[in-house]
Specification:
- With 175 residues, the protein is of the alpha+beta class.
- The protein has helices spanning 3-19, 24-30, 65-82, 102-115, 118-126, 131-138, 142-154, and strands at residues 34-38, 46-51, 54-60, 91-93.
- The chain has a 4-stranded mixed β-sheet with strand order 1-3-2-4.
């Protein structure tokens, strides 16, 4: 695991220990991050910004609950890792799982570590479930699982992944 990704993993573990949960809604609340729901958003999935020292995450209210949880976890990644970057502009999520932007990639890694437990993923993989089946069992998008399994491979497991994360996957989904 490279030092930056290792640092992300450790930051997530620290947050989970601090709040005694991996639930992004509880973490946001306990962190005093205000969640605002956008009823009329069409393409926007989520957005993280800081306004007058107040942290906000805007979420498209038309998403299914599992998707909203993933988007919120991703936005919490921006809060934990990239808060300093919001001075110039907020993070707008029109597409998750972007593998070309370093901040987006890091927020995806953060979300994968937050929502997916290493032991649970390993147990399912050891039972020979495919990555698609594991994503279904864990109720996450396949791309988030692939980020997690790639990270786990970096620090010693040996999963044979059949898929690669696709940066344009969410462009094809209406929230």
């Amino acid at each position: 695991m490279n030092s930056n990704n290792s640092s992300i993993y450790e930051q997530v573990r620290k947050i989970v220990r601090k709040f005694d949960t991996n639930d992004p809604f509880k973490i946001a609340k306990e962190s005093n991050i205000k969640i605002k729901y956008l009823d009329n958003a069409t393409d926007l999935l989520g957005m993280y910004t800081v306004i007058q020292r107040n942290r906000f995450i805007f979420l498209n209210s038309n998403m299914e609950e599992y998707m909203m949880k993933m988007v919120l976890a991703h936005e919490l990644g921006h809060d934990a890792l990239h808060r300093h970057l919001t001075k110039n502009s907020p993070f707008h999520e029109y597409e998750l799982f972007d593998i070309t932007s370093q901040p987006e990639y890091e927020a995806n890694i953060f979300a994968a570590h937050l929502l997916l437990d290493d032991d649970e993923v390993m147990e399912l993989a050891n039972k020979k479930y495919t990555d698609v089946e594991i994503a279904g069992i864990l109720n996450v998008n396949i791309n988030l699982l692939i980020f997690k399994m790639n990270e786990m491979n970096r620090y010693g497991t040996n999963y044979n992944l059949r898929h690669a994360p696709q940066g344009n996957f969410f462009k094809k989904i209406n929230p």
